[in-house]
Every structure is written in C-alpha cells, then in structure tokens.
Amino acid sequence: MRVLVTGATGFVGSRLVPALLAADHDVVVLTRDAEGYDGPAEEVREGDILDPGSFEHALEDIEAAYYLIHSMGSGTDFAARDRRAAHNFQRAASEVGIERVVYLGGLGETREQLSKHLQSRREVEAILETGDFALTTLRAAIIVGDGSSSFSMVEQLVHRLPVMVTPTWVRTECQPIAIADVVTYLVGVLDVPETADDTYEIGGPEVLTYQQLLRRTAAVADRPLYIVPVPVLSPQLSTYWVNLVTDVPKSVARPLILGLKNRVVVTDERIEELLPFERTDFETAVERALGRASEPDPERTAARVRAD
User: Fold this and answer.
1) Are 224 and 218 in contact (CB under 8 A)?
2) If we measure between CA atoms, which residue out of 7, 30, 198, 197 comes closest to residue 99?
3) Tens digit of pLDDT for each residue in 148-171?
4) Measured between alpha carbons, how far is 56 from 204 in angstroms, rounded to an integer?
5) For the whole model, what pTM was predicted?
6) Most C-beta atoms within 10 A of its C-beta, which of 48, 139, 235, 281?
C-alpha cells in the first residue's frame, strides 16, 4: 500500500516509518524541510499542513495516510493551530480521494472535564471524522519511550528529585503503553479492514496510578524516591515545580500536567481481538526508554501481530 506519514520526524512518526517499510508498504513522508529529513522513506515531499497550497501535492497517489501532527510545543495557542491543521488536512485528503486515514489521539472519558490538551486531541478527531475517508482512531495514554514528552517529564523528576511533594493527581489511574506497542497497532490496522471507520483504545498490560508509575520508573533507574502527596499543590504550582527541576518546556509541561487529573484507562478492549500480540510490560518499556535495553527492530515490530 502507498502510505503517507505526517509528523515523520516526531517521537512516534520516526519509529513508524521504518516499521511500515519493513511491512512492505511504500512510504511517502511529508515534512516542512525535505532537505533536512534524514530518515528512511521511498519518497520525501515538502509542505506545511498549516499553509494551504503548500502541501496538497504530497497527498496525490496516496492510499492511506497517518495523521501524527500536534502543536503542543508551539505555545498556548496549540489548540487553535491543531484545529486549523486538521481542517486543512481533512479538506485536502477528501478532495484527492485518500481511502484511509489513521490518527493517534488521547484516552479520556468525555463525560469527565477533559484538560485542554485532551479536549484538543478529541476535537482533531472530530474534525477528521468529517472527511470523505475511512478514519481509524487509536487513543492512547502516556506512551513510554525515549523522546516521549510525558515520559521525559517522569524520567527527569525521578532522576532529579529523590523526595517529591506532589498533588493528589499522583493517585489518578493511567494505562501506559510502550512505543513499540503503539507502532505495532499503527502498522497492524492497515491489514485489518474491520478497523476502518472506527475508534479503538490502546494501552499496556497494566493500569497504574501516577504514583506507582513514578516509583516503578525510579526502581528501574536505580534511584531512591519518596513521594509525599499533599492536597494544596495546584496545577499551576505543579507546572512551576516541573519547570524548576526539568528541561521540559512550559508550553509542553503545563498541558500535560493539567491532563493528569483525568483518568486515562482503556475501557474498550476490542482491538486486542483484532490485533492480538503480547504487549510489552512496563519495566521492559522503561528499560528501553532509559537505554538499558534495545527496542525491537522494525522487522520484528512489523511482524509482531502475525508472529504472536
């Protein structure tokens, strides 16, 4: 299948492209700087989805596209930028006749008051759903891997603060998932026609509170960690706290922290029947993220569903 990947230089996209190539897909990459792209691809096309007229040519002769674009690091207007990009892509993909689009969104129950970050991910999903193509949405919580903004925040806190005075969000439940598993799902849905025009939730094999997640990350990293939850530490103060002890940009840290109040756990497990494979345990995912174990090669990632 001839596949377009947007966001190919990002945390997820840079791992997805080699896995798609290993699965014998013809992969076209859309990037704002074609000369600066040094990753694998059958073809590299230049354009900016925020700039109508610059990118539409990249969608020609494409059967399926991965939409992996988000603007959280661009400042407080990230939701407006994501909204505009999604509208631009949806119109262009519909006009050119792309058959399938795969989008990686975020977990979170809509009946809860979602953070602005999660609201934006859900809004992008809704915009893409209006397109004249079959949309497959995969919703994930924290993705564990080297380069993940959310896991980077966890890792740096663990390494730099042996004692944490934390707000009550440390008791919120989440279902972290290894980046290798995310890529396996992303590649796998193309070979399962039933996943077209549907939404699925993906997660790792365990549900953890953020306190458990921090403690177990510290254990893998061989770091002492003492957590003291207090009820008076506001999200704003949490943001200042993270800025003080990590190098995660405030424009990224604040939306992530505000999202920690939302329980992000898989409630729909249908994807496990359609794409069965042995998911990565949390400790192994952390070891890989910390560079203490190697990630599976693209060929293994591409073949996991069939092999398992």
Assistant:
1) yes
2) 197
3) 988 988 888 788 766 666 667 778
4) 36
5) 0.91
6) 139
